[in-house]
Write a structure and sequence with these properties.
Chain B: The transhydrogenation between NADH and NADP is coupled to respiration and ATP hydrolysis and functions as a proton pump across the membrane. Chain B: It is found in: Cell inner membrane. Chain B: It catalyses: NAD(+) + NADPH + H(+)(in) = NADH + NADP(+) + H(+)(out). Chain B: It is an enzyme of class 7 (translocase). Chain B: Its EC number is 7.1.1.1. The complex is a heterodimer. By secondary structure, chain A is of the alpha/beta class. Chain A has 17 helices and six strands. A six-stranded parallel sheet of chain A has the order 3-2-1-4-5-6. In chain A, strand 4, helix 16 and strand 5 (about 425-430) form a beta-alpha-beta unit. In chain A, helix 4 packs parallel to helix 8 (about 220-245). Chain A is elongated. Chain B is mainly alpha-helical. Chain B has five helices and no strands. In chain B, helix 2 (about 35-45) packs antiparallel against helix 4 and helix 3 (about 50-55) runs antiparallel to helix 4 (about 60-90). The chains are: A alpha/beta, B mainly alpha. Chains A and B meet through helix 1, helix 2, helix 3, helix 4 and helix 8 of A and helix 1, helix 2, helix 3 and helix 4 of B.
């Protein structure tokens, strides 16, 4: 080991320490910004130091070095500038697909490392080759799978692609791909020239499997899928770290791999699904049949009347759903909240774990509108407070407040943890029309005696509420 | 480089410790930060760009250069994009300014 190896190795050590410290900083909103900045410095440092390898290459590489360095700088600039620009300009509502896209790129990068390692024919150790292939397989799945997730969330691919025998087909593709990988490893070990062909087919198969695995999954399940692919990319990076004998990649990759897995499990649990259920059962395909729900009369109320009621009550809990963001009404909502607070009403926000398009997405959307994070409560922290609350205001949310999840065993969402909006003394639901939620399940909450519906676009309804409060004055 | 069975075992130790680290660090993050956290961890696995860089710098053939180029390109996108969106999201989280009294009870959330 020479001096440059030491410098590179120690820079990786420093960077992985900073990553873990930075991630830990993200455990509180107070230190979160500092956390990401610290991790950012670690990353900038370790990327800069990576160029020192130019002084450490074998004689064989020397003639190619200027081209390689030029390509490296070009790729860094192109990738970095494009992603930086996209990241700066993306709308907060479009954040989940952006994260999916960036994650897919990471998976592609890990797969590229694996591909070059196979191309070099220098390694003949079975274990090493096996890890290379495993990292490549996972990286490829994450790459094409994330691209599909991005296309679905971005509205470029509206309907899940499903056909009979799909799971068998996918299984065949998977087994075939693994078989090709084994063939590639075996031929590589024997030094046979067929290794290149098998490797090529293996990577093509792995990329194709990523597509096959993701196309049948519905848009509503995409948050779980993105989180899973985030963990996949982490795992692939960790495995490639072993291939490159770089412990910094191993540590950073595996930390993300396990954190991402935990996050995926938490998310799936919040939706009352197992991960296997999300991946392999075509949820939502037949839920139209479940439309026969509670029948009865929905009461509707004028926005101004609802606003006046809240103005003279003492406590309001607001339950925002993705419908609020679709109507771009977060700013208007916060305006209403500030007026209610000025009138002495205790206002809180209750966020279901799967509100929005990914966990925590609703918090970001509210933060963008300027809502302070200490007004926002998690489901577990606030669910007992509904009983003592005057008004629950549900905006653009449906399944997450559906009491059938508690009581109706035949309901597809039975067992899903929900916000206990129905326990409030009065429930107002701002809703576009009488339709059902994502799951296609009718919501008995809307028919309860203490529920009144405020039909209309969230933006329009909230504007009317604000006007009504202004007319009342601030006495 | 020759990877012996001992270094493989050491690698497994590293993987195990890193996996526990990730688990412990994340399990304490409140769910309001889950989206920035996901993009933050997305940023951290962008360190893959370092691996791609060393592959590209030591490339000797055109296929290696082409694949290495795309590896670095994608890795750079992962790192930069992950950082920018995480930073943007986290910068938006603000506490109440008007009601400092409410903060105390919020420590648990």
């Amino acid at each position: 080991m020479n001096v440059i190896d030491y410098i590179i190795g120690l820079s990786g050590l420093l960077a992985s320490g900073l990553f873990i410290y930075g991630l830990k900083g993200m455990s509180s909103p107070v230190t979160a910004v500092r956390g990401i900045v610290i991790a950012g410095w670690g990353m900038a440092f370790v990327v800069a130091v990576a160029f020192l390898q130019a002084f450490n290459v074998s004689d064989e590489v020397l003639p190619h070095l200027p081209v390689n360095l030029g390509l490296a700088v070009l790729a860094l600039l192109l990738g970095g500038l494009w992603a930086g620009w996209k990241g700066k300009t993306v709308e907060m509502t479009a954040m989940p697909q952006m994260v999916a896209l960036f994650n897919g790129m990471g998976g592609g990068s890990a797969a590229a490392i694996s591909a070059v390692a196979m191309l070099r024919h220098t390694e003949v150790d079975a274990l090493h080759l096996g890890v290379t292939m495993a990292g490549g397989l996972i990286g490829c799945i994450s790459f094409t799978g994330s691209l599909i997730a991005w296309a679905k969330l971005d509205g470029r691919m509206r309907n899940p692609i499903r056909f009979s025998g799909q799971q068998i087909f996918n299984l065949v593709v998977f087994v075939g791909t693994v078989g090709l990988g084994l063939m590639a490893v075996m031929t590589q070990m024997q030094g046979s020239p067929d290794a290149g062909l098998f490797s090529l087919l293996f990577f093509a198969g792995a990329l194709f499997f990523g597509l096959c695995m993701t196309v049948p999954i519905g848009g509503a399940d995409m948050p779980v899928v993105i989180s899973l692919y985030n963990a996949f990319t982490g795992l692939a990076v960790g495995l490639e770290g072993y291939v490159m004998a770089d412990p910094a990649l191993m540590i950073a990759g595996m930390v993300v791999g396990s954190a991402g897995t935990l996050l995926t499990v938490l998310m799936a649990k919040a939706m009352n699904r197992s991960i296997a259920n999300v991946l392999f059962s075509n949820f939502g395909a037949s839920s139209g049949a479940a439309a026969a729900g509670p029948q009865g009369q929905m009461k509707s109320v004028d926005p101004a009347d609802a606003a006046t009621t809240m103005r003279y009550d003492s406590s309001v809990i607001i339950i925002p759903g993705y419908g609020l963001a679709v109507a771009q009404a977060q700013q208007k909502l916060y305006e209403l909240v500030k007026m209610l607070q000025a009138a002495g009403v205790d206002v809180k926000f209750a966020i279901h774990p799967v509100a929005g398009r990914m966990p925590g997405h609703m918090n970001v959307l509210l933060a963008e509108a300027g809502v302070p994070y200490d007004m926002i409560y998690d489901m577990d922290d606030i669910n007992d407070s509904f009983k003592t609350t005057d008004v629950a205001l549900v905006i653009g949310a449906n399944d997450v407040v559906n009491p059938s999840a508690r009581t109706d065993k035949s309901s597809p969402i039975y067992g899903m943890p929900i916000l206990n909006a129905d326990q409030a003394k009065q429930v107002f639901v701002i809703k576009r029309g009488q339709g059902t939620g994502y799951s296609g399940v009718q919501n008995p909450l809307f028919f309860l005696p203490n529920t009144a519906m405020v039909f209309g676009d969230a933006q329009a309804v909230l504007s009317k509420m604000v006007e009504a409060l202004k007319a009342l004055g601030t006495n | 480089m020759l990877i012996t069975s001992m270094t493989f075992v050491i690698a497994l130790y590293i993987f195990m410790l890193a996996a526990f680290t990730g688990y412990v660090v994340i399990s304490r993050v409140p769910s309001i930060l889950h989206t920035p956290l996901m993009s933050g961890s997305n940023f951290i696995h962008g360190i893959v760009v370092v691996g791609a860089l060393s592959v590209l710098i030591s490339a000797t053939t055109i296929p290696e250069q082409v694949i290495g180029f795309f590896g670095v390109l994608f890795g750079a996108g992962n790192v930069m994009g992950g950082y920018v969106v995480t930073d943007r999201m986290l910068a938006m989280f603000r506490p109440s300014t008007k009601k400092p009294a409410q903060k105390a009870q919020d420590g648990k959330a």
